What does this fold into?
Amino acid sequence: MKKIFFYTALIGLFSFTTINRIKPTNHVSVDVLEPSDVCLAENQTNFYIAGNRGMVAKVDASGKALQSINSTGSDYEGILQKGNELYVLDETYRRVDIYDAASLKKMRSVYLHDNGGLNQSFEGITFIPEKKQFITVTEKPVSIHTYNEDLFEVSVIDETPFKEASSITYHHGSLWLLSDEQMMIYQINPTNFSIINQWKIPVLNPEGICFDAKENLIILSDDRKTLYTFSPLNNAQ
It folds into this structure.
């Protein structure tokens, strides 16, 4: 595993990036206890949500749970669908639990490594298909980990300009990092991890981020148990 340091370059880019402010256009309550992350299902209609206490749920656009399970997970913080599988990130156990997306049956687990505190470790997981790489992000301090398709860690950036992270996703050539405490979204270059753009959002406790089939930004609030919809970010002012 190699360590990569982009801290100085990122600080410079971070300092000169304009902060945009956006407001949601719609919101729906979700039928999930303490929801922590969200991803768009591959049918482009429904969403998968990870929750505390090992909950995984499939919900429709209205937030109604269509399917759910309570597993042996402890503190699920990230979720991703890749093909027919769901990759669910457990912060407490430092592992990825892999489920069959159709049945929500747990298939296997892969353990990861991080030195963060018990409740300040892994917060999000995503996949970059062009590079065939998984990416995870930790909460505090914020580090970005890169893995191959077998979830073998190949690099880590353990110094970044971010104060805190609550989720990460990949969409249309960029990584998108969400900060709960700062109530911010950062668009990041997936090659050098520099900040391209950033947005301030009026959402309490934003814990999950994804995009829907219409390019709308979707933000999940843990405390409010709510999915917020924002217009596509290329139209944001």
User: Anything to note?
Assistant: The two ends are 40 Å apart (CA to CA). Residues 7-15 form the longest helix (9 residues). The chain has one helix and 22 strands.
